[in-house]
Fold these 4 entries.
Entry 1:
Amino acid sequence: MPPHEPASAPSPRTPAEILFDLNQDCGPDLEQAVRAAQQRGREIIPQLIQAIDEATDSALQGEVTEGNAHFIALVLLTELRAIEALPAIIRSMTLPEGGSYDLYDDAVTEIFSRTLAALADDRVDLIDSVLSCRTTDLFARWEGATALLMLVRDGSLAKEDVIERLRKHLRQAIADRDSDLATIAATDLATLRAPAARGEIEEALQRNLIDLEITSADDLLKQLAAEELPLADLLGHFHPSGIADAMDELRKWHLFAEEADDDREFEMF
């Protein structure tokens, strides 16, 4: 009788197979797919970008995107600091008429700024494009501005550079009567203690372009006149840039809840 031959180990799943698995229902298999994607590292980046592009294309055609591969891809690409993915991510996060929120739900406010800050590299102009696009979801525009502040905190951008960028956005908002952008830019200029922007902020207030349900004239002007503080004090309350471990991040979401009433931090479909 021939000796028993041990079964050979299963072949590693290809990037395309892993992407397919990422789009399945939650559970142990989905966690294994995330871990497999992490092990593949940069090799799987094209497939993750593809998942986001396909979801964006479907949204633009008015179709409902099935599954969560695009959301998981966003988290993985942020962990991998895949700077080549930034244009696709921004295209997906700046869909008109709330399309980005339909795709990503709370990830717009919980992850997008961290993604932008991690992947911006030398393409800060792409973050500016998020702020300046009037059809972009309001929350996504706020997160674009937050990413600029995070880059200041991280030492990746000079405070003076971001102040000038925000003043430019504020001047454009005044010219275009863009109340959302005016409120965002004025609020963040006040956060940065930018007295040089006082004239633009006062003009925006006079033109009723600042949303006084979000801030007030007194608060803005008091912050501008306040004493200078260390960046750690001004900006230390923001999330860290990037994502250290995609699986740890995903466990905060209901997507990975084992029971329907499991108390997770964030909703996701």
Entry 2:
Amino acid sequence: MSGLKQPSEPTIKPEDARVRRSFNRVVTFSSASAMAGLGGFLGAVKQVNPALEVRLDLVAALAFLAAGAVTWLFCNIMLPSTDEVDQIDPARQQTRKRWLIGFSLFSGGGILAAVVASLRTINGGELRHIVTGVFFAVVVLAGVGWFAAVLFRFMEKEDASLKDGECEPGELDR
């Protein structure tokens, strides 16, 4: 038999499952709260030049709710459940990829729409400086994201190659 577990075997201990569920709840709640706050703030910004104008209205409330709801759904789909310890179903993996792309487009589009709406009163010279700064910020953030993705892949590969108790910290240098 291959290394796959039988369906009747528990794939994770009950206390580990409880910890994983609690962790997933904390991550989901904090991510949804943060994105809802960001969406609400970006929806509330009406003008940035000559003075910052923030107004809480229906647009800000809808942006708050939409960002929070989409992030909640995103986290529930992307975070592994307690049943997915050893292997992820290819169909589920494809769904996760689609959600990641959709969430990225939704988030990026929402931020872009809020920025464009708040910059509509700025003249051409100042706007060019702002666009240049935003371009460099996006390049830097893309570089940080790429580095983080490479680092996480490396760490997952290392984690998968080691079993519990196989080596002590510091033995990796040998």
Entry 3:
Amino acid sequence: MLEWEVLEDEERPLPRLAEERARQGWEQWRPWLVLWALLLAAAVGMFWWRARQQELALRADLLQAIEAERRVMALGTPAEATNLIFGLVDPDAPETWRNQYWYQFAGSRAIPEPPRLGAVRLEEEGTLALVETLWTMPNVPDPAAREVIEPRAYRLANGQWRRTPLPIEEEAEKEELQTAHFVLIAPPDDLAALTSDPALRLDLEEMWQHIDANWPRQWLADTLIYLNVEPDEMAFLIGTQTSERTILVNSPRFAASKIALDSPLSLQAQYRLRVTTEVIRRLTMGQIGTGIFGEMAFTFRGILDQLQEAEARHAALTDEERRAQRNHWREQLDGAWLSPFTDPGYRSIVYTPVQAEQREQQQLAMAFVLEYLVETEGVEVLGRMAQEMARTRPGFAALCKQVTGLTEAELEARVREYVATTED
């Protein structure tokens, strides 16, 4: 019988011919693969470099167009700058939009810092640029609230980027929110912002209750007030009055081009204040009856405006925001003072530069009187002043004396000391 004997010391591995050939093949092609990889990397790098250079050139051209708008906007002289203004606009833009654009230059606008360019998106084969224009508000105390974004569109026309209407996006159907005295009508996003975002939220019913408890009942509106939010790139923040019951309000999305960039109030705070001021004016819509004409109506109207604006500040702004605004007023006055109790004597709606400056100083002085009275006697003092106006229709000096018991000289001395002290 045959037996197999395994001799371990004579074992040898079998040759790996396939592996050897594969290794030789890789060695043969490796230089070529490395070369191809380098060429591909160079091509990708060149493509990226070209794309980056094109992007930088595009952004530089768009920023040049934005800067041209800023320079003309700072002039505030549309009659003299009409050709310049329309030279910035897409010639194919609708005439209505072009006229609205022109109105934006009706008054000079303080622009503390040049704008910057944010995100850019090209559409319509590179002829339409949708951009985010970034504005800085250096006087806002909160650094996180200093930057605001304004959406814009520019079209390439005759080799230059020119301002054009933002493409109209299909808005979701508006929704309504009704309370006891107000109806808020807005697209869903705006409705959510105005009712839920702490930076924008308006407590309309609390405002109504305060006015109802303190102001003359005969002045209060006895009907629902409608706030209709209508997003419009070029429309004013508060639209032209269409009825006593309806306030046309622009969306906060388009507020950046309609606020004071040198203000210490953020975009959201300015939006709240503007809307609140208009609401309070509508709540007291019956304030001027027939038979008040001429100088008396002018004085009465001016005092009433100040009371309404003071109520709005205390309804819409936080304590910190009001302090910041008062300190900003102090900087504007810069030590100058025009007595709020002295009638300037002119009644025209067109003022000389000197008269305009005096009018602004006097309005700030009146605002400081009301702020001082609120600080010392509580916000209810504004309602007491309105009640007194409804009874006797006094001038501002007599009104303050009737409410506080202080003489004109005593109150003015206290207010001037208040104005001279910057608040921390």
Entry 4:
Amino acid sequence: MLELPIIQCAMMFFRSIPRDIIQLDEKTAADLYIKSGDKLEVYLPKDSVVTREHLSRLHDADITRFYVKGRDRKKIDRYTAQHIDKILSNPDVPSRVKADAFYRTSSDTMKQAFEDPHAENLDEIKRSVNPMLENIMKNEEILKDLFTI
């Protein structure tokens, strides 16, 4: 599993997430911070629409990770689950990031199935898991990375 460092900053805890899970033309699920020297600063506030310019500036500055408040972890997990098909099918996203996103999303999905096994919930889970599995099975590199988690 990809290491998710936890940073404590002014009595708040932050989690690191890969830049590549944040999708172009989509709203952010939480405030996204970047490291600036020894501090964290808000790069994109919650509900900001991510543009090519945002991603280009990050790429030019060689920034590969965002930081989110620890309390926003579930929001980021839901965001990842909502966009997992885009993440898995994007050739620019490294296979290790794809494998980790798949692992986390599928783990959360299975936990949800066991916690609430109602038929309508299971149908929704099936609809979300099938495309994920199809994407993973098409990409041997992601499969290899998945087995290393």
